[in-house]
Design brief:
Order of helices and strands: HHHHHHHHHHHHHHHH
Oligomer: single chain
Shape: globular
Distance between the termini: 44 Å
Radius of gyration: 21 Å
CATH superfamily: MFS general substrate transporter like domains
Largest sheet: none
CATH architecture: Up-down Bundle
Number of domains: 1
Helix content: over 70%
Length: about 400
């Protein structure tokens, strides 16, 4: 693979991964306008975000077996076309219930890109490079929260919130062209992979039985849910509590997204000296400390708008240390079932994200406390699972090594 091909593939894979962040972030500044136009409340509009996350979680379980059976591209094309149609449906909806339903379908289509991108990383790059590739993808993904809310705020102000979904459809159309002309096929169709429910469930079960996959998928899924609490709660916190405009909210979101850009670059440097396991543990410990400060500061009413932004920034800096390393460690044991493993990993992450965003909506009390409390709990829970699960993995690996030694022939 030439350097030019390497860069082109990374850019397309990164673009596939940005479909969902754009879908989540770009319409956030329009929450008040959507609520007013559809004659509902912001908490009801937040449920359209929850529906999107549920759709991603469920859809990934569908695409995993399809990607293993039919290869990477055909299911990907089908998903992208569904996403474009559902985006147009969102633009022309006239009720919050219809918006929630269209967002669910939009997610079912869009999640094909997430699953395919992760599986293609496993297909196209050596295992020793996957953590670095995932770190690069995390950087590409991290740029989207800087751009999406800011652009969404101006689009909403200039053309109305409906135009945001038309823009999403057009962006995805451009990505679809890149998939067709630039992206390699990756692993081809495997006719031995059955799509019968029993066989599919058996494949998923074989993946789940792997302790390394289970531990790091849970750690990554729960820890990665913290930003979903921030995404779900921040429109209300900044625009209703602190009374900032749609455009100013977009810029605040962009500033906080810088935290998600710097940490993957730090991860690149740390991987030269430390293992992924060590980096995850340090990153979650750091976030747990900052999360505790965040919760107590909001409870004690310490924070002005600026100080809240600063502490949120410090908290989000830890995300780029957890996500790429947990992804690489989750998928490392698999080759043939990489699509199913990728689907399960993504499903767990988005499923937890859906629960977290719903929890912020349910706990809504007119303050920032529900948002920051859920963020802190995600990080602490992820750290606890890592500490317990890491010991389980080490004991199992040690036992397997002893078994191998015991079964070696005596010469």
């Amino acid at each position: 693979m030439t350097r030019k091909q390497h860069i082109s593939i990374i850019l397309i894979l990164g673009a596939l991964c940005t479909i969902s962040p754009f879908s989540i972030d770009m319409y956030l500044p329009g929450f008040p306008a959507i609520a007013q136009d559809l004659q509902t409340t912001i908490s009801q509009v937040q449920l359209s975000l929850t529906a999107y996350l549920i759709g991603i979680s469920a859809g990934q379980l569908l695409y995993g077996p399809l990607l293993d059976r039919y290869g990477r591209k055909m299911p990907l094309y089908a998903g992208m076309f569904l996403y474009i149609l559902a985006s147009v449906g969102c633009a022309f909806t006239t009720s919050v219930d219809a918006l929630i339903a269209m967002r669910f379908l939009q997610a079912i289509g869009g999640c094909a890109g997430m699953v395919a991108a992760q599986a293609l990383v496993r297909d196209l790059f050596p295992v020793t490079e996957t953590a670095k590739v995932f770190s690069t993808l995390t950087l590409v993904i991290a740029v989207s929260p800087m751009v999406a809310p800011t652009v969404g705020g101006y689009v909403t102000t200039a053309f109305g919130w409906h135009a945001v979904f038309i823009a999403l459809a057009l962006i995805t159309g451009l990505i679809l062209l890149g998939i067709y002309f630039v992206l390699p096929q990756g692993k081809g169709p495997d006719s031995t992979m059955s799509l019968k429910p029993r066989a599919v469930l058996s494949n998923f079960w074989n993946v789940l039985r792997n302790p390394q996959f289970l531990v790091y998928t849970l750690v990554g899924g729960i820890a990665s849910a913290a930003p979903f609490a921030y995404i779900a709660g921040s429109p209300d916190v900044f625009m209703n509590i602190y009374k900032v405009s749609e455009q100013h909210y977009g810029w605040i979101f962009a500033i906080l997204s810088v935290a998600l850009i710097g940490s993957p670059q730090l991860n690149h440097l740390l991987l030269r000296k430390y293992t992924s396991e060590q980096i995850i543990k340090a990153g979650l410990t750091y976030q747990a400390v900052i999360g505790a400060l965040l919760v107590y500061g909001v409870y004690a009413q310490w924070f002005s708008l600026m100080t809240l932004i600063v502490v949120l920034f410090l908290f989000l800096c830890g995300q780029g240390l957890t996500n790429p390393n947990s992804s690489a460690l989750s998928l490392a044991p698999f080759s043939r079932h990489a699509g199913s493993a990728s689907a399960l990993m993504g499903s767990v992450r988005m499923g937890v994200g859906a629960l977290v965003s719903a929890a912020v909506s349910v706990l809504h009390n007119g303050t920032a406390l529900p948002m920051v409390l859920v963020m802190g709990l995600c990080t602490v829970t992820g750290l606890v699972i890592l500490l317990i699960g890491g010991n389980v993995i080490k004991k199992r690996m040690s036992r397997e090594e002893q078994d191998e030694i015991a079964t070696e022939p005596v010469l």
